[in-house]
Each structure stands twice: as C-alpha cells, then as structure tokens.
Amino acid sequence: MSRTILWVVLPVLLIIAVMTAFLASDPLRSLTGAVPPVEELTVERTLLDENGIALRVRAGGSEPMTIVQVQVDGAYWAFTQTPRGALERMETAWLQIPYPWVQGETHHLTLLTPSGVTFDHTIDVAVATPTANADTLRTFGMVGLLVGIVPVTLGMLFYPALRSGGTRTFQFVLALTVGLLAYLLIDTFGEALELAVEAAPGFQGSTLVWLVAALTFAVLMAVGRRKGRALAGVSLATSIALGIGLHNLGEGLAIGSAYATGSVALGSYLVLGFTLHNLTEGIGIVAPMVKQRPSLWVFAALAALAGLPAVAGVWIGSYAFSPHWAALAFAVGAGAILQVIIEVGALLARNARDEERLWLSGTALSGIGAGAAAMYATALLVQI
Amino acid sequence: MQSWFKYPVTRRFLLGVGALLGGTSAVRLAFGKAPPPYPQDDTHAAQSNPAGGHGTHNGMTTVGEVNNARNGFDPHEILTDWDRGTVSRLPDGGILREFEITAEDKEIEIAPGLLFPAWTYNGRVPGPTLRVTEGDRVRIRFRNLGSHTHSMHFHGIHSARMDGVPGAGNVPPGGMFVYEFDAFPFGCHLYHCHSIPLKRHIHKGLYGAFIIDPDPDRHPEQADTARSRLLGSLENARWQEFVLVMNGFDTNFDDENEVYAVNSIAHAYSKRPIAVDRARPIRLYLVNVTEFDPINSLHLHANFFDYYDHGTTLSPTQRTIDTIMQCQGQRGILEMTYKDHEPGVYMFHAHQSEFAELGWMSLFNVRDVALQQQASGE
C-alpha cells in the first residue's frame, strides 16, 4: 500500500519540479519577444433599457485584459465597467453604456484594448430587454405552454386511433418516432454546436458539447437498463418524454433569448408554427404504450415532462441567457434523444423479430421517413 | 430552427408581437420597473468624465485621460511650439536655420489607455513644427534611429537630390542624411516620410508641419499682411496662431482608422478647450495627413473664416466660409475673429461626423483675457 502511495506522490512531485524549473529558467524567452499578448473578448449578454446598453463580456487573454474605450456605431462613448480594472482569463464584467439606442434598428459596438485590438458586437434589432415581472413571466409562460404542453397533449390524442390499429400500425408509429427523434437529434446537435461557437473560446464549446452529449447518453442508457432489460411500455415512453423535454428546454431557451436579443419577434404565427412542429412529439411519446392501457394521470405526467421544460426554457432564455449554458442544455438534450432512438429502435427490432420479419421493413422505412419529413416540413413554419 | 440566432429580422415582424401576447404589449415589456440585472454604479459620472466636462459631448467621448508625460508631448503645447532651428549667418549674409531630427520607434497613447506602436520624428506625432522664413537656407540633419528605412520628404521647392524619396535621401536604420534647400515658396506646408511602403510609413506617424513665413521685403505691395504672418514681428504678436495636423490611427491595422484627431490625441481639445482671447484674431495652420480616407475637413461653429489654400498667397483664396475640406497632403491657413461674439465655448470639428465622433472634435474657449486679468488683479 505504501509503495502505491509512493508511486503516486513521486510523479506528482516530479511534475511540480519540472514546471518550477521551466518557469524559472524561461527557455522560450527568445520566442515570446515583442509579440503582443493574445486577447479574446466574448459578449455573452446584451441588455437594452432606458439607461442605454449593457454588455456582459468574458475575457480570454493570455494576460489580464483591459477595455480602454468603447465605440457605439463608430463613435467613442462614455461607459462604466463593473468590476473595474483588468479582467483575468475567463473573468466577466458588465459594461454600462448610456447610449440612446433606437428601437428596431441595428447597432454596432466595438470594444478596444490597450493594444488597439478591436472586438465587434452587433445588436441586430434593438428592442428593450424584457424585465422580470409578473406580467412578462405570465406572457412568456404562455408562450412556453403553447410551444411545449399544447402540441404534446394534442399529439397524444392520436392514442386511441393508434390502439385500434394492428401490428403494422404499431411498427409504423414506432418507426415514425425514430424518424422524428432523428430529426431532433440533428437539429439539437446543430443548435448546440452553433451556440458553442458563440461562447467564449475558453470553454472549448464544441468539445464540451460532444462530451456532455456522450456522457448524458451513457448515463441514461445505464439508468434505463439498470434492471438488465431493454425499455418498453411506460418506462420507454417516460424516457422519450424526458429526451423531448430536454430538447424543448433548449427550444425554449432559443425562443426566449432570440426574443430578448431582438433577433426575432414572437409573432403569433411563429409560435403556432412551433406548436404544429412539436405536435408529432406527442405521438412519439405514446407510441410505445399502444399495447398497454395506462391511466390518464400517466399521460398527464408524460405531457408535463415533455412540455413544461419549454416554459422554463423561455423564462431562462429571456432573462439570463448565456451561450455556453444554452449549448450545454442542448448537448444534454442530444444525449437523451440518442438514448431514446436506441431504445425505440430496439423495441422496433424486437417487435419485428417476434413476428419473424426483418426490422427494416417497408413499414419501418416509411415510418422513419414520414417522421423526419413531418418534422422537416413543419420546421419550415419556424424558419421565419 | 437552425438559423434562429443569426437571422436578421425585418422590422415588420416586430409588429407581430401583439396578437399572441394578449393584453401585454411590447411597450409594457420594455418599461417594466424591475431593477436592471447589471450592477448599478453610483460613481458613473466621475468615471466616465474625469476631465470634469463641459457638457458638450453628452456621453459621446473617450473615457479617461491620456498621460502626456508618458508620451513626452502635450497636445496643447504642440499647438504653438514652433521649432525655429539654430539660427546663424551665411557668408553672403543670408539666414541659415539648422534642425536636428531623429526618427525613432515609440509607443504613444493616442486615446486614454489606447496605445499605438508609432514611428516618430523626435519622439512625437506630429513631428516638430518647423517654422522658417521665406528665403532662409534650411539644413536638416536627419538621423534614423528607427527599425526601418525612413526619409524626410519636404513639400517645398528643392533639388531632386534633396527630395527624401527612395534613391535620394532615403536613410537606412542607423544612417544619417543632411537635407538642405532654400525655403520657398512661403506658405503652410508639411514634411513626411516617403520610404516605401508609403501608406504605412505615413500612418505610423512620420509627418509634421513645415511653415514658411513670407518675407515682407519680397512683397512690398502687401508688406503689412506679410508682416502679420512673420513670426516675431510686432504685427504678428497680436495674432493667436495654432497648428492643427489632422491625422488618424489604425490601431488594428485593417486599413481603417479607429481614432481621428488633430495633433494625434482624440478629444484633446474638447476635454480641455483651447483658450483664446476674444479681442485678438486667430490664425490656424491646418494640415491634413489622414491616411485611408480621401478627405478630411474642418467646420467652425457660429463663425466664418477666410482661407488661404496652401498658404502661398497673401490674399484669401476663399472668403467667408465655415467649412473647408482637404485631401491628404493638402493644407492651408484659416483666419477668423470672435471679437463681436459673446464669450463662450465654440466648437470646431471635422464635418465628416464619423471623424468627429471618433475623436476629431475640438472647442475654443473664447474669453476676455483683459477683463479676467483685471478681475484676478483685484
């Protein structure tokens, strides 16, 4: 035992010794020379109110960074920084700029560091950032319900029809679920990676997205099969609802933040588009339960699990949005969706095997195609 | 879904907000009374306007103050610190003016906290304002202590050998060259480095004003006017003369200026206005060396001026104008008076709003100096 400890302590001591010697002797001095420090600045949040424009920035310099001047629309402008002073790597600060921004128009901001390097940030469409009060909470909550709960519940209403169908119908609906989940998986990864690019480079966003998605997938698979059996029935439906719920959380974040940053207006047409787009999700959730007869509260609970996260997403997205957190939410969603694709696919395969048919039947293929196509087609409604 | 975040949305979509949001309109969203989520800072005014301010910028300004001591030059001193050289007599009785100029690399602060890796004449941008008299023999010992080849190309009359271009007076690092010529014609001129690449050598800071005062004896028909331009004469003493070199700095080297100014320091004369005596006339030696932009300009508020293009005439080339534009290398003399105005702070700036908002914004503080002296004497 003591030998084992020694073989842990010794390498650690050696690593520390090498690092100390390296820093003390600075053998790369000749390479660094007069090269200016690497500077990186990411704007994570933008708030517009009657006081002007406020930005939350995150520094990512090789040395502490200072913001010395701020331009708004090509004009130097007064600003206050909180906290003041140089920003350490990954440290954040708020910049408050008393600029008379114009409703509905575009504003360009440029932040300058001592070396004259510029960092640009564009506010596409200036709208006042919503403030958190009962009114806006209620309104955004309603948007979340329309995007999450309503379509899932409406989709579930197909359940009796699904039950009346035969084995072929069951297989078709399962395949449909796989198709819609495949669409959601691609879409979720796309969103996650896009947000990862917007996050501060220090977070290594894209790597984080893949790692978190893989980890989520592994954990959910392990939890789901802890009893050694593949998922089916209500437990599979619960997994699907969870995966879709996580996706809807991300969707809510996107809607909330897009509204808050003025990059989209929450027109009724757009929100109804989301409602229609998410309708298929309800069918997917109830599909594995066609051969059972669960009580009504199970449906209600599943609808809540899949739909309510959208409400939370819209709230968080409109008030406290940061690209790295949103990317993380989407990554978790992607991992969860991958898990249910595997499980639904396994159920589909088992079902086909019981009937001594290939799982890749015409029914299955058309189901997958129909699911993905339905999602794709309804997505056109929310492309703006 | 994919393009949610980047989508440029047309304004009419904003109008769609209403229907779904029911009774809650976007306007109410905008003006909810909850405290803003960013920290509130009571010391706002103090930090954003350390100079005390004159209430003219309304927030449109650089924040903080430039350390003139660190730069080694003060934009207010540059306005009037004529370099007249070391004067001696030539064997034929003429005047010889000798100047020592060195080119050196130097980091200068062009706006508060904003540093620029400049190339300078005598450690300052613009370089020293050389002021000689028409017909003087001018001798400039130019030493290059910089890291690149440099030269001094004078706008004036001289031989090809003295032109300060590649092949004639181009000086490698560590080298030296003596430029010599007779000062002609009188006017408001400039000098700058003419080494290649030309654009970079100029925008890095190698330029300065070169003023040749007219010799009254050579212009008997307008001797009084000539004397008023001749530094050191009695007639000249009543004039308040300032040199203004319009320039810009491309701090991120994308061939666009981040800072515009006169005499390099953004907002130097709007944070601390140039004090002038209401009773005495004002003469501005205006030089444009702004790189990357085709023209620069000066617009005077609440007043008009006479303009002498290149300063090479004793009668104005344009009368009663309030805006003048110059291409790069163009320059001229502006003459104005505030004697019939009420005292106060009067603005002047580039009438390209962009340049004004990026630092080329200035103020005259017009005062009654005699009255003030009386008051302080009591």
Keywords:
heterodimer, A: 384 residues, alpha+beta, Immunoglobulin-like, 2 domains, four-stranded antiparallel beta sheet, flat, B: 378 residues, six-stranded mixed beta sheet, five-stranded mixed beta sheet, globular, disordered N terminus
What does the model show?
The complex is a heterodimer of chains A (about 375) and B (about 375). Chain A is of the alpha+beta class and about 375 residues long. Chain A has 2 domains: about 40-125, Immunoglobulin-like; about 135-380. Chain A has 13 helices and 8 strands. In chain A, the strands form 2 sheets. In chain A, strands 1-2-6-5 form a 4-stranded antiparallel β-sheet, with no helix packed on it. Chain A is flat. By secondary structure, chain B is an alpha+beta fold. Chain B has one domain: Cupredoxins -  blue copper proteins (Immunoglobulin-like, Sandwich). A 6-stranded mixed β-sheet of chain B has the order 14-13-16-21-18-19. In chain B, a hairpin with an 8-residue loop joins strand 18 (about 305-310) and strand 19. The radius of gyration of chain B is 25 Å and the shape is globular. The model of chain B is unreliable at about 1-35 and about 40-55 (pLDDT under 50). The chains are: A alpha+beta (about 375), B alpha+beta (about 375). The interface between A and B is large, with 74 and 61 residues. Chain A: Keywords: Membrane, Transmembrane, Transmembrane helix. Chain A: This is Zinc transporter ZupT.
